[in-house]
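Hey, can you fold this one?
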Amino acid sequence: MNKFLPFKQEEYDLRIKKLRALMKQEGFDALLLCRQENVHYLTGFNTTGYWSFQALIVPIEGELRFVVRHFEALNADAYSWLPGYRSYKDDEDGLGVLCEELSKMGLSKSRVAMEKANGFFFGIGNYERLRSMLPDMKVSDCSALLERIRSIKTDSELLYIRKAASIVSRAMKDGIAAVSEGVPEAQIAAEVYRSLLLNGSAFLANPPFVSSGWKTGLGHSTWGDKRVEKGDNVYFELVACVNRYHVPLMRTVSVGQPSALSRKIAETSLAAVEAAMGVIRAGATAEEVDAAARGEIARRGMSECFRHRTGYSVGVAYPPGWPEGGLLSLRPGNKEELEANMVLHLPLVLLGNGETGAGFSETVLVTKTGCEPLTSCARDYLQK
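Sure. Predicted structure:
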């Protein structure tokens, strides 16, 4: 079977080498990875069926082993470099198969680290069964270990990210062009999807957000049967995906003359994005970037409308969300330093208590001296 891999084998080998260096520092004999983003990052394995039990065993040396549902095994043939795997059928116990593989590899009494914070893919029931089936295995936590590597993008990764940025920029322009009084939100969303798919986006880790009027004052609200009305803000948070690399983008337009509150919220969001971008550079801390945006919002008297962090890392993603593993969060108290070639999304959306809302964002590449916006859609508060 032909292999469909987004990177050369040398890149996967380098990722594993870097990961094993971190494992050695932590004293881990092996990792047990179940998060689809991490499995994909190390092997290329791609499927929408990762809700079925699967696990990648990464020993400190030797071959990786993959336990996967039999129905998904052909995807391992097509979309990974792995020479083999252990599949289980639907009448077999996938966790039991995993325990057999761990024992065969001599890991049943070793220090094996798991993504404990990632219960979506390895629930507490399976964890308790694993501990009872292999009681002598010393289970540690490796949550966010691999994400340390994932957060710094290589040149080959940035090629896909730049392509996704181009696609989402085009989709934003096409979505905004579809906005007018009386148009259903769903029609605008349909135009967004048309643009995304015809210009090369793969399936998304989360649906686009398209809302209007009072719905823009609600977090994560998206299209329904509402029609755009005169005076409405129309809010977009879109994303494009190329080989699982995601680039989000947020814009807001007004249909006719906006209310005073709508205008103030939009102008505050724009100023906060600019303030955050002015601080981003290699060596700046996450909390410094957040403080710059949050300070601008406070100066304008709009703090009560800002309910979340200033930004987060983006890259490889699968449903249910596009933030990259929750590793890098631009929020108060996070003293982690930014590094060159991190890619960050800055979603500075403000919610006006269910009355109105507005948001603008950029996805930026961190450089040694500043940041580079990756998208090409004008960042201003348009009136249509």
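The radius of gyration is 22 Å. Let me know if you want another pass with a different chain boundary.
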